[in-house]
Amino acid sequence: MSSRQRTSDDLRAVAEALRSHDRFFIVTHENPDGDALGSLLAMKLGLDRLGKDIVTFLPGESGIPSDLSLLQLEGLQRELPADATKRVLLALDCANAARMGAAAELLGRVPLSIDVDHHHDNTRFGMINLVLDGASSTGEIVAGILEELGVELTREIAEPIYVALMTDTGRFGYTNTTPEAHDLAAKLLRAGVDPRRVFQEIYERVALAHLKLVGRAEERAAVYEGGRLIISYLLRSDFEDFGVGEEYAEGIIDRLRAVDGTEMAGMIREPPEPPGSPRRVSLRASHDEIDVSAIARKRGGGGHRQAAGFSSDESIDAIVEFIRSEFVQATRAAARP
Length: 337
Ligand SMILES: [Mn+2]
Hints:
Blueprint: H1 3-20, E1 23-27, H2 34-49, E2 53-57, E3 88-92, E4 113-117, E5 128-131, H3 138-148, H4 155-168, H5 179-190, H6 195-203, H7 208-220, E6 222-224, E7 229-234, H8 236-242, H9 252-257, E8 264-269, E9 279-285, H10 292-297, E10 302-303, E11 307-312, H11 316-335
Parallel strand pairs: 1-2, 1-3, 3-4, 4-5, 7-8
Antiparallel strand pairs: 6-7, 8-9, 9-11, 10-11
Helix pairs in contact: 1-3, 2-3, 2-4, 3-4, 4-5
This protein binds manganese (II) ion.
C-alpha cells in the first residue's frame, strides 16, 4: 500500500470514528505551544458544530503562554474529569503517551483512543493513529480532518488553525513551510483570518519583563566549536528577578539559532515552578545533517529533527558538556563520506 493510500485511509478512519462517537476528551501536550493549543481549539470548535459533547484538557502545571491569549480556551480542564474514561480520547500534537501527562493513564481504559500528530518519532500509542510527519503542523492535519467531516471553515475555526500553522512553521520560515502549508494559509485567509491582527497578538504584545528575560539569556549566550554551537541558560533566580514564568523562555532558542554561523543551538532553563523540577533543555539545528531529536532521545526527550527537547537533573555545566559532545559526534557523523 502506498503511503498516500495509507494516509487517506487513516484520515477516513479518524473521520469515521469522530462521526460515529458523541463524547470526546481532547488532549494536547504539556508546556503547550501554538500548534498544541490552536489544534485543540480548532478541533473542539469543529466537533462542537457537529453537536458533539467535548471536554478539552491540558496536562501539567504550566500556564497558557501569554502570546497565545487570543485563543478562546474557556472550559479547558487542568484536572482529569471523573467521566474521562467514558469518552473517546483524542490526542493532538503528542509524540508519545507521556506527553499527555495525567491523561496517559486513560489509555486502555477509554472506549477508543485516537492519536493525531506530525512528529516523525510518534510512537503510535492510539488505537487509531493519524501521524503525518510531512505535515507542517498538527493544525494542518486537523484542518484536513474537519474538511473530511464536512465542517464549514468559519473564521472562528480558521483562526486557531492559522495560529498553529504560523507558530509551528516559525512564521513560515522553517523547513516544514511546504506548498501545502501556504495553500492552507491562503484558505484560512479566505475564511476571514486577519493575518496582521493575529501576528500582532502573538508577536507584538511582548511584556517588558519578557524582553528583559530574553536579554539576560542573550547576554549569557556562549559559543563553542568555533561558533557552530551556541548555548545559553536561564536560572530559577532569573525568572524570579523579572517575576515571570517558564513560558516566557519560549522562543529564545530561535534567537540563538539565528546567530550567524550557528549549526546548532541549545537553551537550558530552570523552571521556577514547581520547586525542584528538572532543568529543561531545548535544541535546534539549522541544517538537515543534525538530528536534534536523536540527541534529545538519549536523555528521554524527543521532538523533530530540527527542534527537540528533554529534561535533566544534571547541572548546567554537565548539560552543556553533553550537548557539546553530542554536537561534535553528530557533525563528525555527518561529515563522514
Ligand atoms: Mn506541532
